[in-house]
Design brief:
InterPro entries: Ald_DH/histidinol_DH, Ald_DH_C, Ald_DH_N, Aldehyde_DH_dom. By secondary structure, this protein is an alpha/beta fold. The protein has helices at 42-60, 64-80, 82-93, 97-117, 153-166, 180-191, 206-213, 227-240, 262-274, 294-307, 326-341, 373-376, 392-400, 415-424, 457-463, and strands spanning 8-10, 13-15, 22-26, 33-38, 124-127, 132-140, 143-147, 170-174, 199-202, 220-224, 243-247, 252-256, 284-290, 345-348, 363-366, 383-389, 404-405, 407-411, 429-432, 447-448, 451-452, 465-473. It folds into two domains: 8-248 and 450-469, Aldehyde Dehydrogenase, Chain A, domain 1, CATH 3.40.605; 252-432, Aldehyde Dehydrogenase, Chain A, domain 2, CATH 3.40.309.
């Protein structure tokens, strides 16, 4: 684990930071303590922001190719410590070892992508009269707070920090209080390949995050996390004038059309609902299946849920690890219990196991209705709530009756239905016949309560910069 005096980074100098407050991070598989972490104070936040402010002019003036080279160096450093980072992810939030390493590798790939794209990122020119021209150039926003989540702490942080740094911004990173050891090591590896102050860090809980997001000297706050936290950040930035980039909660639907092989569809649903114990922003949160295949689909999905090997993430045979903590497990289980009380049928899982850790079984609920919280809210657990529908149109209408708009998936053999679906669904990402996947450079902007602004892809470089329009008149009398 990281040394106890390396929780705040300001201008290249590490310190313990924090006042009298501290919290303990526990291993969700065993309940054993991972380490104690100080709660960063407003003084720590101010020091980190001040360091980023001092470094900003020099970094903005650094040649784009040099910034890209520094990001490549950071990617190499992370690659050299990939196993250590993955082990920290598993220890802090329970992700199975292979998935944890995959998240680290995804972060490395993202840094390398931005290292190449950053130097090519530019504006455009407009021809005026014969003696005049306009051009639009992109400049760094300035000081960006990057507040990252626990469910994929390396990949997401690499994306946001990488895009911010390569476009000439300086960063203050606040990792989740559930994965602070991972965040501290990652920040150390990135910041160590950059000039002092370009990447800084504060550790802490929600009070630390609020102090950072509301700091008056920030130019932007980039946040991936819950809708509640995103709303609070939006309110804070509305008061300071900082830009808010938010990817928040979702209740992503999966539509299973008539004519689809129910066994194959169940495999897709199992991946979408149970990967990372359902703790992915774009996990499948509700399923609408055509009544002609619903019985076979639910039976196959329940069989897959029951067959998953549950255990600690460090066991290479584990397919379903624990939830991040017992508090979160309680919230997931309460949604399941309420759905059953309201008439849903439990087809698999749904019971808290005995023993240590915050494990929760892969759970399948049949006969759900849209008013149930397990369908309407973000469960963020290994739960597959299913509702049978009489038509494809009914499924589309139900999928759109949500205040979220992050992603949606459609499984269909009818390409006319596929075309109609992606045009109709109110989501930033629509996936046809695959719950996960997509091109490495893909990006989408979440809608409604799921957030605002592009995440990932070349478009994130646009979000991290501001456009300046210059009119150049050449004929001076």
């Amino acid at each position: 684990m990281r040394p106890g005096d390396r929780w705040t980074l300001a201008g290249g100098r590490w310190s313990r930071g924090g006042g009298d407050g501290a919290f303990t991070v526990t291993d969700p598989a065993t309940g054993d303590p991972v380490g104690e972490v100080p709660v960063g104070t407003a003084v720590d936040v101010a020091a980190a922001v001040a360091a980023a402010t001092r470094a900003a002019p020099g970094w903005a003036a650094t040649a784009p190719a040099e910034r890209g080279a520094a990001l490549h160096a950071a990617a190499r450093a992370i690659e050299e410590h990939a196993d250590e980072l993955a082990a920290l992810v598993t220890a802090e939030m329970g992700k199975p070892a292979g998935d944890a390493l995959g998240g680290v590798e995804a972060g490395i790939g993202t840094l390398r992508q931005y290292a190449e794209l950053g130097p090519l990122h530019g504006g455009r020119s407009l021809q005026g009269g014969r003696s005049a021209a306009d051009f639009m150039t992109r400049e760094p926003l300035g000081i960006i707070a990057v507040i990252t989540p626990w469910n994929d702490p390396v990949a997401i942080a690499c994306g946001l920090i990488g895009a911010a740094v390569v476009t000439g911004n300086t960063v203050v990173h606040k990792p989740s209080e559930r994965t602070p050891h991972t965040g501290a090591l990652l920040t150390e590896l990135i910041a160590g390949r950059l000039p002092a102050g370009v990447v800084d860090m504060v550790s802490g809980d929600g009070t630390t995050g609020e102090a950072l997001a509301g700091h008056p000297d920030l130019d932007a706050v980039a946040h991936v996390g819950s809708t509640g936290a995103g709303r609070r950040i939006a309110a804070l930035t509305a008061g300071t004038g900082a830009k808010a980039l938010l990817e928040n909660g979702g209740a992503d639907p999966l539509i299973v059309d008539a004519g689809v092989d129910p066994g194959w569809a169940a495999g897709q649903a199992a991946t979408g609902c149970f990967a990372n114990a359902g703790q992915i922003c774009t996990s499948v949160e509700r399923i609408y299946v055509h009544e002609s295949v619903s019985k076979e689909f639910v039976t196959a999905l329940a069989a897959r849920a029951n067959a998953l090997r549950t255990g600690p993430g460090r066991d290479p045979s584990t397919e379903l690890g624990p939830l991040v903590d017992e508090r979160h497990r309680t919230q997931v289980h309460e949604q399941v219990e309420k759905a059953v009380a309201d008439g849903a049928r439990l087809r698999a899982g749904g019971r808290i196991p005995e023993g240590p850790g915050s494990f929760y079984p892969a759970t399948v609920l049949d006969g759900c209705t849209d008013h149930m919280a397990v369908m309407a809210e973000e469960t963020f657990g290994p739960v597959a709530p299913v509702r049978a529908v009489g038509s494809f149109e009914e499924a589309l209408a139900a999928a759109n009756r949500s205040r979220y708009g992050l992603a949606a998936t459609v499984l269909t053999r009818d390409m006319a239905h596929a075309q109609h679906a992606w045009r109709t669904l109110k989501a930033g990402t629509v996936k046809i016949n695959a719950v996960f996947g997509g091109a490495p450079g893909g990006a989408a902007t979440p809608r409604r309560d799921s957030g605002q602004g592009f995440g990932y892809g070349p478009e994130l470089l646009d979000e991290m910069t501001a456009v300046k329009v210059v009119h150049l008149q050449t004929d001076v009398p």
